[in-house]
C-alpha cells in the first residue's frame, strides 16, 4: 500500500500543503500591500481558491478521524453502514469544493495574464481570447459544482443516493471532471505563449519570459497524475472497487488535494520574489510590459508608437504607476520601468530616432520620448 491510500500519507499531504498554500497566499497579499499594488481579480479568485483548499484539507482530516479515509474498509457491514451517510455527505462536499478550487485557480491564472498583457485602451485578439477563457472556466466551475449534487437525478436527497447508489453514474462524473480539468489546465498553461512569441524580442528573451509562465507545469504534472489514477479507478468499475471503496475514495481525495496545492503554490510563486530577492512582482510586471510595449511593433516607427500607446492615457506631467494594473486602466504613479536591450534593435530601424529616457530622480520614474528631428 502506498502513501496515497494510507491515513498518515493523506494527513501529511494535507497538513504540509495547507501551510504552504496559506504562506504563498499571504505572501501574495503582503507583496501587494508593501508595493501599494492594486488588489485585482486574480487576487480575489486566488483567495477563493485558498478558501476551497482549506475546505478540502479539513474534509480529509474529518474523513481520517471517522475512519472512511486512509483505512481499509471494515469487513463488518454494520460498521460500513454506520458511517455511510456521513461519508456520502463528506465526499459530495469534497467534490463541490474540488470544482470550486480548481476553477478559481484557473481563473486566477487567466486574470493574471490579463493583468500583464491587456492594458491600455486598445483591444487585441488576446484580450478577447482571455475573455472567452474566463467565461469557459466559469461555466466549467458552475457545472461541476452542480453535477455532484444531482448525480442520482434532480432534487434527490443524499439519503436516497445512499440506498440507490447503483442507479447513480458516479464514474461518468469522475471521467468528465478529470479529463476536462486536464484539458483546461493545458489550455490555460499555453494560453500566453503565442502572445509572447509574437513579440519582437530575441529568442533568449522569449524563452525567459515563457519560463515565468511555465512555472505552472508542476501543477500540470499533478493534474496528469490525478488523471491517471482516476482512469485506473474508472477502468476497474463499480465491481472492481466494491471490495474496498475506502481505498479508492482515499486516492481520489489525495490526488485532488495534491493538484490543488501545486496549482495554488505555483501561481503564487512570483510573490515569493519580493522576500527572496527583493524584486517586487510589480517591477517584474512592468519589465514584461516594457517588452510588450517596446517590442510588439514590427514597423520602422514602432518604437515611437509603442511608447505612445503606453503613455497616451497619462496626463502631461504625471508619472506612470503599476498600482492600477487592471486590463482597461492606464498605469499611474511612480514605478521604475526598464527599457529592455531589444530596444536598440527597434530604434535602429528608424535611424536613431525615438529615445527612451528613464528618470530616476524620484521614488518612481517616468518614461519620456524624444522623437528627434522630424
Description:
Keywords: Membrane, Transmembrane, Transmembrane helix. With 374 residues, the chain is an all-alpha fold. The protein is built from 15 helices and two strands. A two-stranded antiparallel sheet has the order 1-2. α1 packs parallel to α11.
Characteristics:
elongated, two-stranded antiparallel ribbon, mainly alpha, 374 residues, disordered C terminus
Give a quick precis of the structure.
This protein is mainly α and 374 residues long. 65% of the residues lie in helices and 2% in strands.
Uncertain spans: 296-374
Mean pLDDT figure: 74
Radius of gyration: 25 Å
Major sheet description: 2 strands, antiparallel
**Order of SSEs:** HHHHHHHHHHHHHHHEE
Number of strands: 2
State the secondary-structure class. mainly alpha
Backbone shape = elongated
Binned strand content: under 5%
Report the helical percentage.
Answer: 55-70%
Count every helix, treating DSSP H or I runs of 4 or more residues as helices: 15
Biggest sheet: strand arrangement = 1-2
Distance between the termini: 76 Å
Subcellular location: Membrane
Protein name: Rhodopsin domain-containing protein
Keywords: Membrane, Transmembrane, Transmembrane helix
InterPro entries: Rhodopsin_dom_fungi (IPR049326), SAT4-like (IPR052337)
List the helices and strands and how they pair.
Blueprint: H1 7-34, H2 41-66, H3 77-82, H4 84-117, H5 125-146, H6 158-163, H7 170-190, H8 193-197, H9 203-213, H10 217-241, H11 245-267, H12 272-277, H13 281-295, H14 302-311, H15 343-348, E1 355-358, E2 367-370
Antiparallel strand pairs: 1-2
